[in-house]
Amino acid sequence: MLRILIGTGALLMAVGFGAAGWQYWQSLPKAPAVAAVEAESPAAKAVTRQRWLISPSGGLIPQEDVRAYLVQEAFVARRTVQMTLQATLAELLAEGEKLPEVEYLQVLADIRAPRVAEGLCAVVRQSFAADCAVNMARVVEDSVDPVAGTAQFRVELVYRVADNGEELPDLAAHVLRRESVGLTQEPGAVGYLSADAALAAALAVTTDACAAEGVGTLCRPMRLSVDWLPGQPVQGWAEIAWLDPLPKGMSVAPPLTSVAKE
Fold this sequence. Notes:
The chain is α+β, with helices and mostly antiparallel strands. The chain has one domain. It has six helices and six strands; from the N terminus they run ααααβαβββαββ. It has helices at 2-27, 34-40, 42-45, 63-70, 105-125, 195-210; strands at residues 80-88, 129-139, 150-161, 174-182, 217-228, 235-245. Strands 2-3-1-5-6-4 form a six-stranded mixed β-sheet. A hairpin with a 6-residue loop joins strand 5 and strand 6 (235-245). Helix 1 (2-27) runs parallel beside helix 5 (105-125) and helix 5 packs parallel to helix 6 (195-210). It is elongated and about 70 Å long. The chain starts with a helix and ends in a 17-residue tail after the last strand.
């Protein structure tokens, strides 16, 4: 009986906070799904000089990575910022709301997780992104701490890169190089006071990595992953990509596959 009552209470809780959650979602800018934006964007439909890229070893770059590098005007599935962070449950409440009973806190946190993610999108827009959208936001299972009034969240954002006006060089005469950049602080380092500050620092490191000596033409951020807890050093990494001239002795012919026909 107790299990049935708890189950019924959770359903009512989901309905109540779900209605508030729906109103919250309705107030957000409408961000189309990644797949829909990719399919409808002019960049995805346009006939380009070349829709394939090669690696320094001569192999083809996977098409999802090609889109992440070339299609700047759309949200694409492989160009993401993923972040795990801790947030205060009270921050998820609308004006006048109170936290529910302990057994319903997980439901509340999961329904309101997009509110945490939207704040992070604002940070991404202040860096190299022209726009940002929430692709996924969920509470981490069993992470709710009712005593501290906190929970951990896992967020995935997609973003469009700001156009700096640079034209693409002859892609057939270049290879795409990719490099992972560590965003992890040294043990004992002072942690950032907020998730926003931790993410902003990670984005700055990524931007600096693209400007580093030895990085070639049109360096672009591809993916970031950041973990943040209050008072703890940040853990994470970023992937950047750029174009380099073909290595000496390498010549490339367009691939005789469906890639060239897309």
